[in-house]
Amino acid sequence: MSARGQRGYASPAPPYEVGTFVDGDTELAYELHGTGDRVLVFLHGILLDANMNRRLAVDLAAAGNRVVLLDLPGHGRSEKPRRASAHRMDTYAGHVVALLDHLGVERAVVGGVSLGANVSLMVAAQAPQRVQGLVVEMPVLEWAVPAAAVTFVPMLMAVHFARSAVRVAAQVIRRLPRTGVGPLDSVINSLANDPVETAAVLHGILAGPIAPTVAERRAMSMPTLVIGHRVDRIHPFADAEQLAQRLPNARLVEATSVLELRFRPDRLTGEIAAFLDQAWAVRRPRRRAG
């Protein structure tokens, strides 16, 4: 793996495989867990990284799936462009399709949490022929807009106007040892990012499209598992509920909180594993050449 985008991150240990590829002018890093033709690409939340989903990847790989954890631009070990245009959700979705091309995967189940959930929906809108199914955990849609603005706009202002103080704090955090607890390490890595890089991510995501249109969502016929919870306003249960109602072939599962899949994962991991079995049993049209 190239050294670009890796500052402050410990190298993954076996049994993961790690790799990089270049899409356009951006180098992206990913992890591979498991083998086989049943591929799940699973994406992290905003400003986080693959660490938060590694336990899920290990468990689903043990159930017979090949799980790919992609670090989106500005996150984890991937390159961190300092221009907002690199961090639009529709641009992120294009990188996921490029990842499938890089791996030689014709079709995959695509999913993620929060930001990753929305990017997965964008992939399904842009390239439905590449998507066998969707796993959408905690989508951020219409009901979440006010709470998301209240949360992320002050963050953007802070990294702009208190840049020096944030940079000093990031330098200190970068030297801290990692805990080995994936979700916690993901948060530490986020706090270690340079404020200019963080600002670019927030600016790009807030300025670009957040999700496919309602009409585009209604046209998504692939099997979909939607996971929502009732605990925080950025991920309102109403968004998950409404999404499940609008998608033609979706099922809704209620989580106790954002922490359940990370710290008490057995129930939801079982739901996802069963869904993957069902999704791969569905015959989808083959992608046309060219």
A few lines on this structure:
The chain has 290 residues and is an alpha/beta fold. The protein is 42% helix and 17% strand.
Describe, in plain words, how this protein is organized in 3D.
The chain has 290 residues and is of the alpha/beta class. The protein has a single domain, classed as Rossmann fold. It is built from 11 helices and 8 strands. It has helices at residues 54-62, 89-103, 115-126, 145-161, 163-174, 182-191, 195-207, 214-218, 237-246, 260-263, 266-281; strands at residues 17-23, 26-33, 39-43, 66-71, 108-113, 131-137, 224-228, 250-254. An 8-stranded mixed β-sheet has the order 1-2-4-3-5-6-7-8, sandwiched between helices. A hairpin with a 2-residue loop joins strand 1 (17-23) and strand 2. Helix 2 (89-103) crosses helix 3 (115-126) and helix 4 (145-161) runs antiparallel to helix 7. It is globular and about 55 Å long. The model is unreliable at 1-13 (pLDDT under 50).
